[in-house]
From TrEMBL:
This protein's UniProt keywords: Membrane, Transmembrane, Transmembrane helix
The keyword Transport belongs to this UniProt entry's keyword annotation: no
Record InterPro entries: DUF2065
UniProt protein name: DUF2065 domain-containing protein
Pfam families given in the database record: DUF2065 (PF09838)
Species annotation: Pseudomaricurvus hydrocarbonicus
Transmembrane segments: 6-23, 44-60
């Protein structure tokens, strides 16, 4: 299980790095805009992201 978790973490880092690598200016603007979003909206986006990830993981397995 730890090996799979490590692989998943590495893949996450690859996916997280694609946008800043390809579009650094847009990524910087996105991060600046995220600073203006309220905590409640960020929490809701994080919650739905977790639900989507868990749901997709369930469907895959």
């Amino acid at each position: 299980m730890w090996e799979e978790l490590g692989k998943a973490f590495c893949l996450m880092l690859v996916f997280e790095g694609i946008i800043p690598f390809l579009y650094p200016q847009r990524w910087r603007q996105l991060v600046a805009n995220l600073a203006l979003v309220s905590d409640q909206k960020l929490r809701m986006m994080g919650f739905f992201s977790m639900l989507l990830g868990a749901g997709l993981l369930y469907l895959i397995n």
